[in-house]
Amino acid sequence: MTANEGGRKDLRMPDEDEVFAVVENMLGANRVKVRCADGQERTARIPGRMQKRIWIREGDVVLVEPWDWQDEKADIVWRYEKADADQLREEGHIE
């Protein structure tokens, strides 16, 4: 992630099977309720590699990978910092 002369950072963008989401509710047991950019509300799982290293709170912008066998569930793969989320909003990637 490098900063360009205009203050813009190169951010991680979603792959073909990932979507942007906003954390709506903390459910406990490493689960959160997210509102995805495709209009669906899913229960997302915080994987073990992120549990103690990256703290996820309500209102955070995350990347999720929906399960292909159960569409109402997903795995969180990335969390954006507040400044990065603001940049995504300015560039029109998320609302």
Automatic annotation (TrEMBL):
<dbReference type="InterPro" id="IPR018104">
    <property type="entry name" value="TIF_eIF-1A_CS"/>
</dbReference>
<dbReference type="GO" id="GO:0003743">
    <property type="term" value="F:translation initiation factor activity"/>
</dbReference>
<dbReference type="InterPro" id="IPR006196">
    <property type="entry name" value="RNA-binding_domain_S1_IF1"/>
</dbReference>
<keyword id="KW-0396">Initiation factor</keyword>
<dbReference type="InterPro" id="IPR001253">
    <property type="entry name" value="TIF_eIF-1A"/>
</dbReference>
<feature type="domain" description="S1-like">
    <location>
        <begin position="7"/>
        <end position="81"/>
    </location>
</feature>
<dbReference type="Pfam" id="PF01176">
    <property type="entry name" value="eIF-1a"/>
</dbReference>
<dbReference type="InterPro" id="IPR012340">
    <property type="entry name" value="NA-bd_OB-fold"/>
</dbReference>
<comment type="similarity">
    <text>Belongs to the eIF-1A family.</text>
</comment>
<comment type="function">
    <text>Seems to be required for maximal rate of protein biosynthesis. Enhances ribosome dissociation into subunits and stabilizes the binding of the initiator Met-tRNA(I) to 40 S ribosomal subunits.</text>
</comment>
<keyword id="KW-0648">Protein biosynthesis</keyword>
<dbReference type="GO" id="GO:0003723">
    <property type="term" value="F:RNA binding"/>
</dbReference>
<protein>
    <recommendedName>
        <fullName>Translation initiation factor 1A</fullName>
    </recommendedName>
</protein>
